[in-house]
Amino acid sequence: MSTIATLHIGEKGIILEECLDKIPLKLLEMGCLPGAEVELLQIAPLKDPIYICVNGSHLAIRKETAQEILISKI
């Protein structure tokens, strides 16, 4: 299984249903829902946080959180 943290810059994936209970409520409210397409935009110089695009919204999330969100790569 892949996670958001395993993406390379420019790669995309679809968030899987299996990780719904591990996604923080704040991210769910911002659109990080199962079935949503996510793209890795940028990685901070110290590798944390990472910047993603979900449903047209740009978000910065901790790498620790990104490792919990399962995806299937496109």
Task: Report on this structure.
This protein is mainly beta. Helix content is 12%, strand content 36%. It is built from 2 helices and 6 strands, in the order ββαβββαβ. Strands 1-6-2-3-4-5 form a 6-stranded antiparallel beta sheet. A hairpin with a 6-residue loop joins β3 and β4. The longest helix is centred in the middle third of the chain and has 5 residues, at 25-29. It is globular, with a radius of gyration of 11 Å. 20% of the residues are buried.
Task: Compose a concise summary of this entry.
The chain contains two helices and six strands; from the N terminus they run E-E-H-E-E-E-H-E.
Identify the notable features of this structure and list them briefly.
2 helices; mainly beta; six-stranded antiparallel beta sheet; 74 residues
